[in-house]
């Protein structure tokens, strides 16, 4: 095919829409067990620590798969790995649906626990679409618009756990446990179809199939593309790992996105067990937290574009720290609610700022950096719930609020990491001059 005959498919807006929809559907698996934890506790007699492992399990594969799949975007543009992850999640949810259809309620017991963990891990693959989408969207948008575009992608996509936490218990209440997961199955099939039609690779990755690399870059530049990969998957991972600033960003994302995921699945248990709220009240409080953190992330990205990512990170982490202190010390329902919302707001704004910093600090390996940051950062959603459950096992009921001291520590460490970035941002990182982001 002649170079001039290459017909570029997609546009920045359509791809942003497709990636956001795909991530929205895939990220719903983060709430696979959280809103229904009380049902499994009743049927299987699980301990608080076992609950923590169960609700956190979808984050394990979702986190680890973000690393290689995010890096693969620098090689293939993102479309294929995005679809692979959604299909893997589909298989996990289908297996869970079949298991519950055949075992619940009479035969779901302690022996079923390992199978629930395994299916949750597979279903969690959908969350890994985040790091793929970050790279895919970054290649479509110019640097000056990436903060807002990535905040829209991450913020609207992150709202999925909140909606799932709100809708899934309602569906289960009306139609039964197994049918609730049938609804989840139908939603991910819809997500796969929509992404298939909208989620196209950036111009460079379309041109490269029809011409040599330099010509593909020239043609892609003519289409407005500014970022270009420098190597394959492992090259991108190793290159981004060699940028030391990748690792403070990992720490920030562990605290804010991983911490957000952990609370999304833990809060229903907290509200019902500590304040003895009704199930629907716990669901509404959790969904409100999740949706606040998700939607305010869009505003956080816009603020980072205008005011600078580091500045917004410091402000948001201070808000998170204040909310965590309140949740740890409070013995009053409404004061704890205020603390929860402060934590959600701080996390959401910071998440919008972090991914503004990724293409700025690691411009020659965006996919690899997105994989490290999104993958290892997401591990917070897997690691923190068992810690929160451990506080309850150790201190009894009072361990529920004391567990939030984990977030005080994470917030303080994250503030230190941002301070390090600010102190060194004028230095040369990996051959690229880093200047204040304004």
From TrEMBL:
Pfam families on file: MFS_1
Ranges of residues in domain Major facilitator superfamily (MFS) profile: 15-426
Topology in the lipid bilayer: Multi-pass membrane protein
Membrane-traversing stretches: 12-31, 51-69, 81-101, 113-137, 149-172, 178-198, 247-267, 279-300, 312-335, 341-358, 365-384, 404-422
Family per similarity comment: Belongs to the major facilitator superfamily. Nitrate/nitrite porter (TC 2.A.1.8) family.
Major site of localization recorded for this protein: membrane
GO cellular component terms, A-Z: membrane
Domain of life: Bacteria
GO molecular function: nitrate transmembrane transporter activity
Keywords: Membrane, Nitrate assimilation, Transmembrane, Transmembrane helix
SUPFAM superfamilies: MFS general substrate transporter (SSF103473)
InterPro entries membership: MFS, MFS_dom, MFS_trans_sf, NO3_transporter
Any one GO biological process: nitrate assimilation
Compartments where located: Membrane
Name of the protein this chain belongs to: MFS transporter
